[in-house]
């Protein structure tokens, strides 16, 4: 998908000579934690679902830090050969667009730029038509007026993939820290390679990750359109399993604890539990004896139904609304010893530090007696800031405020085809990640995926981060 055409940026003929100001910008100090890196991910035909999630997880700072530090921290100051060195020849031929992108972040001023009315996305042989990029949203400044992106975006993409800005991911590191090859080690190698890169912008190819993913889960094999949320859920669970497996194999270290003689979740694995995991409490009150039965269940994200012309707050209220258990759904009460009518309530017992909300836009819809798996284009308004009110009385920090920092967007008319991109709040501001392409956008652009605009782009997974707490 040529997202840069959505912006309508064009490049006038300019000098091939790179100024000292531009070169010093790229040679400038690289943040040790990787916050300042802006890398696209290569698409291997249908892997946009993975790219959009990987980008979001990379900019989930506590997650990235935890991955890099387990089982032992990497040295970000090591001069590893994971990127091309800055020889005079390579510096002369650096892509102007990379400087433009970096320079565009240097200014906080926003000016509008009209995009083309229709953009075409090529995914699995299908062409998606989108009109939701008609409003001004692109960041610009004086530097970009004099040195725009390349005219031919496909040439730009190919030149980057040829190695000018390509990050070479070393997938052999897992043996150095005693772990078997897994999706976790692949993610760790990707993050480490980006952080240790000598350049701030470029493209990396998560070849090994896709190879391991398809080897370990046949669901992700082939060229079919995959689901970004399913990949997120699978990836987080596999990472948890890998960490806990490694801890069990290293019981002689201080990474494990034992309570009352029973093995408990390892200390090292707790960093991931503490980030994404929350706890739901299901309370069922019997109408006959008034007894209350409670059951706790952990979650890594919340999947919520969407209705027409609604908001995230309304969807969450529906998710937590009481349910009457009657008729065929009566509850078996242990105190009464029989099926009874009851009320079921779901509340949050423990709030996660990062709240992932999955909008259930794909649903079986009945039409003329037939059921079809279709996409719902209902308008769902999501705020920049969010509070969850449906909590138990003993919930930790029940007034916790969340801030939106990432949106995974699905473009397409149905669940079996389309394209995924992610819009993420980085150190440099809101940024659009579309596979190999990385484009700065302004804050209003983030709210263009409610589902109320023409086109087929809708928010699919929202990521909120707790405000004013230590992550």
From TrEMBL:
Domain of life: Eukaryota
GO CC, one annotated term: nucleus
Keyword Hydrolase: yes
Organism, scientific name: Pneumocystis carinii (strain B80)
GO molecular function terms listed in the Swiss-Prot or TrEMBL record: cysteine-type deubiquitinase activity; metal-dependent deubiquitinase activity
Enzyme's top EC category: hydrolase
USP domain location: 39-467
Phylogenetic lineage: Eukaryota, Fungi, Dikarya, Ascomycota, Taphrinomycotina
UniProt keyword terms in alphabetical order: Hydrolase, Protease, Thiol protease, Ubl conjugation pathway
Enzyme Commission designation: 3.4.19.12
Family the UniProt entry places it in: Belongs to the peptidase C19 family.
Name of this chain's protein: Ubiquitin carboxyl-terminal hydrolase
Family matches, as InterPro entries: Papain-like_cys_pep_sf, Peptidase_C19, Peptidase_C19_UCH, USP, USP_CS
Recorded catalytic activity of this chain's protein: Thiol-dependent hydrolysis of ester, thioester, amide, peptide and isopeptide bonds formed by the C-terminal Gly of ubiquitin (a 76-residue protein attached to proteins as an intracellular targeting signal)
GO BP terms in the entry: endocytosis; protein deubiquitination; proteolysis
Pfam family, one: UCH
């Amino acid at each position: 998908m040529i997202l840069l055409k959505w912006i309508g940026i064009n490049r006038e003929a300019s000098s091939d000579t790179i100024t000292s100001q531009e070169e010093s910008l790229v040679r400038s100090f690289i943040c040790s934690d990787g916050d300042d890196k802006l890398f696209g991910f290569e698409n291997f035909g249908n892997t946009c679902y993975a790219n959009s999630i990987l980008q979001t997880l990379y900019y989930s700072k506590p997650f990235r830090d935890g991955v890099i530090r387990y089982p032992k921290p990497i040295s970000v100051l090591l001069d590893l050969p994971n990127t091309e060195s800055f020889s005079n020849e390579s510096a002369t031929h650096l892509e102007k667009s990379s400087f433009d992108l970096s320079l565009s972040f240097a200014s906080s001023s926003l000016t509008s730029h009209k995009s083309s009315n229709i953009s075409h996305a090529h995914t699995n042989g299908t062409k998606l038509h989108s009109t939701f990029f008609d409003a001004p949203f692109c960041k610009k400044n004086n530097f970009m007026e004099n040195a725009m992106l390349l005219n031919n975006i496909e040439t730009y993409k190919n030149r980057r993939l040829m190695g000018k800005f390509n990050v070479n991911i070393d997938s052999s590191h897992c043996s150095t820290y005693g772990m078997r090859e897994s999706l976790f080690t692949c993610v760790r190698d990707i993050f480490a390679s980006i952080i240790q890169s000598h350049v701030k912008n470029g493209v990396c190819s998560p070849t090994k990750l896709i190879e391991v993913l398809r080897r370990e889960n046949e669901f992700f094999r082939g060229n079919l359109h995959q689901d970004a949320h399913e990949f997120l859920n699978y990836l987080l669970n596999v990472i948890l399993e890998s960490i806990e497996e490694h801890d069990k194999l290293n019981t002689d270290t201080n990474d494990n604890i034992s309570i009352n003689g029973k093995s408990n979740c390892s200390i090292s694995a707790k960093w991931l539990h503490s980030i994404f995991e929350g706890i739901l409490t299901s309370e069922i009150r019997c109408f006959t004896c008034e007894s209350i039965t409670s059951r706790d269940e952990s979650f890594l994200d919340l999947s919520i139904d969407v209705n027409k012309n609604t908001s995230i707050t309304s969807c969450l209220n529906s998710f937590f609304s009481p349910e009457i258990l009657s008729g065929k759904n009566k509850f078996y009460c242990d105190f009464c010893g029989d099926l009874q009518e009851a009320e079921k309530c779901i509340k949050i017992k423990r709030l996660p530090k990062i709240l992932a909300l999955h909008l259930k836009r794909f649903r079986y819809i009945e039409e003329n007696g037939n059921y079809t798996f279709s996409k719902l284009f209902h308008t769902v308004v999501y705020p920049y800031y969010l509070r969850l009110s449906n909590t138990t009385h003993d919930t930790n920090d029940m007034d916790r405020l969340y801030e939106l920092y990432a949106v995974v967007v699905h473009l397409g008319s149905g669940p079996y085809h389309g394209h995924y991109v992610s819009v993420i709040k980085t150190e440099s501001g809101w940024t659009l990640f579309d596979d190999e392409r990385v484009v700065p956008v302004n804050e209003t652009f983030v709210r263009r995926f409610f589902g109320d605009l023409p086109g087929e782009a809708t928010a699919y997974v929202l990521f909120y981060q707790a405000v004013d707490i230590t992550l």
